[in-house]
Sequence to fold (80 residues):
Amino acid sequence: MTKKITKKMTFQEAMLISQTSGLIFLKYGLHCIGCHMAADESIEDGAKAHGLSDTDIDKMIKEVNDILSDKDKKAKKSTK
Fold:
């Protein structure tokens, strides 16, 4: 099972778990995945610096984890 992404993780940590998370971050206007701060700044702090609300951040994290969960389910089905 894939590890869940949390808003306390850095962008870099999230990208190491799933590069797909970067596409979701871009969708929310967070182009900082390539920024030097991505290695040290939490997703939550970066998102707030770019004007996202707590609700937006929670929605974004849920979207990332839903995609990861779907990938896990598909992988389990293919091994049956």
User: Anything to note?
Assistant: The mean pLDDT is 87.
